[in-house]
Design the sequence.
């Protein structure tokens, strides 16, 4: 049972008070269509709940902290621990959870030195059960899919959504259909979907083509779509921000920097911050900035070329395959978040991504390429004076290092940019590479290699 002093703040399962609100025209409905778009204006829907605003912030902070001592699965989940700001399922037994959330907030001593930002942190969402931030949203969306009685759930994906959806579907006794672009997702993400039992279709198109096809499919077949336009997904992803603020003792950072792909995550973080401010959990908003790969920069172009009024879609190309998206579905939500929080939107090059990924690896935590855009983006925002060195900055690392081993191996072997326009320039990254050494199995060979390494790298960055 939750602690009695705070029981009046606990949410009661079964009291469905949430509604779907259109982010365009603002109309509010009790139910959402299959495509999660407003029947009046076609814009995306979000979940709203009038009960959120009447909460007592001090009691909530105590309640959430107390729950960390409890052993019920609803409390062990770092998502459902914050259930007062989530749509309530009919009962606690309905919840499909893999103990998601509870991800660490790391300091980054080496990157702090390189960037000159002493208060630099990484919220590592890659330490979720399936290795990416998607799990925080998936536990909520899978719960409501099962509660509604769907047998099949489906998504288009660059890999992480499909891995996460397949896991939560398996856990919740549902079947899952995965549409991924053939040859453009990492084996490690694909293998997860296979192991969790998804029906996995590799389509000869890109992510945007997969998503288009899924939108047609949901109108014809009884499958429930679990892409991030599903508003339940974003509700779960909001908890990243609640957990982050709790880890910072409710003192908001100045900046939160996120990678931008389909733009669900930035939308969710922004929604969470606004809700936290409205209820008094925080008194000022951090700026949320979105970073994209240069070759998949639809949001950057949308802001620069149309002031955020019309989506400029494009043919995406980047080795950060998780964000290889040219037609981001949640772009309007992301524009609103940038405007509401005063954040920036920047792009970074393939070389900048590779260097930043190696630097995060050198901190002993690592991440996948798409996550590394955050550190690369921070360097740009510092140069522009948008971020000041004395400010507190949080990078959201969205995926685990192990998600894309091919990228990492190619980088360290020096093959990542072979045959690309970056080949020559990539030589400047040589000092970040640590290729494996093949040796005869003799003591002498290993000792010599050790001595050579000591000579060429006499000091560790932390010594
Ligand atoms: N980082 C990683 C590791 C991702 O997998 C994604 C998106 C993003 C960042 C971008 O987040 O879409 O919310 O802006 N991956 C999706 C997928 C598209 O299918 O796994 P976003």
Sequence:
């Amino acid at each position: 049972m939750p602690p009695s002093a705070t029981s009046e703040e606990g949410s009661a399962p079964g009291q469905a008070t949430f509604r779907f609100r259109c982010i365009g025209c603002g109309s509010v409905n009790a139910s959402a269509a299959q495509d999660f778009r407003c029947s009046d204006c076609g814009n995306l829907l979000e979940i709203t709940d009038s009960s959120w605003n009447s909460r007592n912030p001090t009691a909530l902070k105590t309640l959430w902290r107390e729950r960390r001592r409890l052993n019920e699965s609803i409390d062990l989940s770092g998502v459902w621990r914050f259930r007062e700001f989530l749509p309530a399922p009919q009962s606690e037994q309905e919840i499909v959870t893999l103990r998601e959330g509870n991800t660490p907030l790391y300091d980054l001593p080496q990157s702090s030195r390189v960037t000159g930002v002493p208060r630099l942190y990484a919220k590592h969402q890659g330490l979720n059960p399936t290795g990416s931030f998607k799990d925080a949203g998936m536990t909520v969306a899978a719960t409501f899919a099962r509660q509604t009685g769907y047998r099949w759930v489906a998504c288009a994906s660059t890999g992480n959504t499909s891995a996460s959806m397949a896991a939560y579907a398996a856990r919740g006794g549902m079947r899952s259909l995965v549409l991924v672009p053939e040859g453009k997702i990492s084996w490690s993400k694909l293998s997860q979907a296979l192991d969790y039992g998804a029906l996995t279709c590799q389509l000869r198109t890109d992510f945007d083509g997969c998503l288009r096809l899924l939108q047609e499919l949901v109108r014809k077949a009884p499958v429930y779509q679990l892409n991030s336009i599903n508003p339940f997904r974003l509700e779960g992803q909001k908890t990243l921000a609640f957990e982050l603020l709790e880890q910072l003792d409710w003192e908001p950072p100045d900046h939160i920097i996120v990678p931008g792909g389909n733009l669900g995550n930035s939308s969710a973080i922004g929604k969470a911050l606004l809700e936290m401010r409205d209820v008094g959990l925080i008194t000022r908003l951090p700026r949320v900035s979105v970073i994209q790969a240069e070759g998949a920069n639809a949001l950057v172009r949308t802001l620069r070329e149309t002031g955020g009024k019309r989506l400029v879609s494009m043919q995406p190309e980047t080795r950060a395959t998780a964000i290889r998206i040219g037609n981001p579905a949640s772009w309007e939500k992301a524009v609103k978040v940038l405007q509401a929080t005063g954040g920036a939107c920047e792009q970074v090059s393939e070389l900048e991504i590779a260097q930043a990924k190696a630097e995060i690896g050198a901190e002993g935590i690592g991440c996948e390429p798409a996550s590394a855009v955050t550190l690369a983006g921070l360097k740009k925002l510092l140069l522009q004076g948008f971020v000041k060195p004395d400010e507190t900055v949080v990078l959201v690392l969205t995926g685990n290092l192990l998600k894309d081993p091919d990228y990492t191996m190619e980088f360290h072997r020096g093959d990542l940019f072979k045959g690309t326009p970056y080949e020559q320039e990539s030589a400047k990254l040589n000092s970040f590479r640590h290729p494996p050494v093949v040796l005869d199995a003799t003591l002498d060979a290993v000792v010599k290699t050790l001595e050579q390494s000591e000579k060429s790298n006499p000091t560790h960055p932390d010594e």
About this structure: Residues 155 and 226 are 5 Å apart (CA to CA). Confidence is low (pLDDT under 50) at residues 1-8.
